[in-house]
From TrEMBL:
This is Monoamine oxidase. It comes from Longibacter salinarum. It holds the Pfam family NAD_binding_8. Belongs to the flavin monoamine oxidase family. Substrate binds at F267. FAD binds at V142, E348. PANTHER family: AMINE OXIDASE, AMINE OXIDASE [FLAVIN-CONTAINING] B. Residues 113-366 form the Amine oxidase domain. GO terms for molecular function: oxidoreductase activity.
C-alpha cells in the first residue's frame, strides 16, 4: 500500500516480525496512530511456514520450551493452539550414503518442546489480522532513521525508505525498530549518528539462527511412524543433518493434520543448496529420505528449503562473522535513545531469552513497560 508522502503518526514500527507486530498491536490498542513498515511481501520475518497437503511446516522458528512463558500467553490472547513435538519412536543414524542406516533410541533429552498449530507464522498472521486498516505496509524497506533538529532537539523522527517504484518518508514521535540488531548496523543509517556503545552492540550481536538452512517435506501420511520410527534422523551424508517429525496431531479437529498428512523438517549446513536449482535440491532430499526410510519416502507431496544466510532481510551480506552464536542479553540494546524516541525491539534486544520467540515478545512489550508513549509525551523517557 502506498504511503502518503507527508505521512505523520504517533509511532512508526520498522519490521513486521513477531516483535514489530506485537508492539504495533499494543500501541494501536492504546489508541495511538501507528504505521508498520515491512521490507518483505509477507509478515512474520523469521517465522515462516510452508503450506502443503493441508499442513504448515516451519522453515523458520518452530519450538518453544517450558521456560518460555510468554509464548503460551500470546497464543491464548490470539486464540491459537499448540501441541507437543512428536518424540516417541526409534531414531535413524545415517553415517554415509553408501552404507546402511542404523537405528537407535534417541536419549530423552532435551526436555519436550511445543509447536504452534498452523505453524509459527500463524502467530504473525493472527496479530496482523488484528491491526487497524492501513497500519501495515509490506514491500517497504527502510534505509534511514533521522531526528529532525539533530542531537539537541526533540523533533519528530523521520523514517525514509523505498517501496517498489518510489521512495517514502514517515514522520513520527517514536520509532520502534524491530529489525535484528546486526542487520540494523549494516543496512540502516541513523542521523545524528548513534553513540559508539549502541553502534558496537548492534554490530556484534548475532542474529539467532540466521546462519542456518531449513528444509520441509510433506507426505500423504507419516508412514515412518507405522514402522515405529520417530522421524528423527542424524545424518553425516546430508544434505540435511538433522530431521524431525513435523506432523501436527490429527486429533486437532479442523486444525493442521486433519488431512492425515505427515511432515518432516530438518536443518542443513548453510549454503548446502545455494546456487542449486530447486529440482536438484528436491532430488537430493528425496534420495536422503529414501535411504533412511525406504521406498515410501520416494513420492512427497512437497519439498521446500529456506537458506537464511542468503536472505538479505535477515542476514546482511557481511553477516558471516557471527556464525551461529546465541545472543546474550545486551543492556545497551534495551535502552532507549534520542530522549525515548528511538527503541530497538527485535528478539535479540530482549534481556530474557534473547533471540527466541519468547524474547521477541519480551522486547516488544518492554517499550510499554518503560512508560510507552507517555514517557515521551511527558518527558519521562529513560
Ligand atoms: C531457521 C530458524 C529457526 C528458528 N528456530 C527457533 C525456535 O525453534 N524457537 C525460537 O524461539 N526461535 C527460533 N528462531 C528465532 C525466531 O525466529 C526469532 O526469535 C523471532 O522470529 C524474531 O522475531 P523478530 O520480530 O524479533 O525478528 P524477525 O522475525 O527477524 O523480523 C524482523 C522483520 O524486519 C524486516 N526487515 C528487515 N530489514 C528491514 C528494513 N530495512 N525495513 C523494513 N523491514 C525490515 C524483516 O523482513 C522481518 O520481517 C529461529 C529462527 C530461524 C531463522
Amino acid at each position: 500500500m502506498p504511503i502518503a508522502p507527508s505521512g505523520s503518526v504517533d509511532v512508526v514500527v520498522v519490521g513486521a516480525g513477531i516483535s514489530g507486530l506485537l508492539a504495533a498491536y499494543r500501541a494501536a490498542s492504546e489508541g495511538l496512530e501507528v504505521i508498520v513498515l515491512e521490507a518483505r511481501d509477507r509478515v512474520g520475518g523469521r517465522c515462516h511456514s510452508m503450506e502443503a497437503g493441508g499442513v504448515h511446516v516451519d522453515l523458520g522458528a518452530a519450538w518453544h520450551w517450558e521456560e518460555h512463558k510468554r509464548v503460551p500467553r500470546i497464543l491464548e490472547e490470539f486464540s491459537l493452539e499448540r501441541f507437543r513435538q512428536h518424540e516417541p519412536g526409534v531414531a535413524i543414524y545415517e553415517p554415509q550414503r553408501d552404507r546402511p542406516v542404523q537405528k537407535f533410541e534417541w536419549p530423552d533429552v532435551p526436555p519436550p518442546s511445543w509447536r504452534v498449530a498452523g505453524g509459527a507464522q500463524a502467530i504473525a498472521n493472527a496479530i496482523a489480522a488484528e491491526l487497524p486498516d492501513a497500519v501495515l505496509h509490506l514491500g517497504s524497506r527502510v534505509r534511514s532513521v533521522d531526528r529532525e533538529g539533530g542531537e539537541a532537539d526533540t523533533g519528530a523522527v523521520v523514517v525514509s525508505g523505498e517501496q517498489e517504484d518510489h521512495s517514502f518518508m514517515v514522520r513520527a514521535d517514536i520509532c520502534l525498530c524491530a529489525v535484528p540488531p546486526r542487520l540494523v548496523a549494516h543496512t540502516i543509517d541513523f542521523g545524528p549518528d548513534l553513540p559508539v556503545s549502541i553502534r558496537s552492540a548492534l554490530r556484534r550481536t548475532p542474529t539467532w539462527m540466521s546462519h542456518s538452512l531449513k528444509a520441509g517435506v510433506v507426505y500423504e501420511r507419516p508412514f515412518w511412524r507405522e514402522d515405529g520410527l520417530s522421524g528423527r534422523i542424524r545424518s553425516f551424508a546430508g544434505p540435511i543433518g538433522d530431521w524431525h517429525d513435523a506432523t501436527p496431531p490429527s486429533s486437532m479437529g479442523d486444525h493442521d493434520g486433519a488431512s492425515g498428512a505427515g511432515a518432516l523438517f530438518g536443518f542443513g549446513p548453510p549454503g548446502a543448496v545455494s546456487g542449486v536449482d530447486a529440482a536438484t535440491v528436491r532430488t537430493a532430499i528425496i534420495e536422503q529420505l529414501t535411504h533412511c526410510f525406504g521406498p515410501d519416502a520416494a513420492d512427497p507431496v512437497a519439498v521446500d528449503t529456506h537458506d537464511w544466510t542468503a536472505d538479505s532481510f535477515t542476514t546482511p551480506e557481511q553477516g558471516s562473522a557471527c556464525q551461529g552464536q546465541h545472543p546474550e542479553p545486551v543492556p545497551e540494546l534495551a535502552s532507549s535513545y534520542w530522549n525515548g524516541q528511538l527503541h530497538f525491539i527485535a528478539a535479540e534486544t530482549a534481556q530474557d531469552h534473547p533471540g527466541f520467540l519468547d524474547g521477541a515478545i519480551e522486547a516488544a512489550e518492554r517499550w510499554d513497560r518503560d512508560g510507552g508513549y507517555d514517557a515521551v509525551r511527558f518527558g519521562q523517557a529513560i
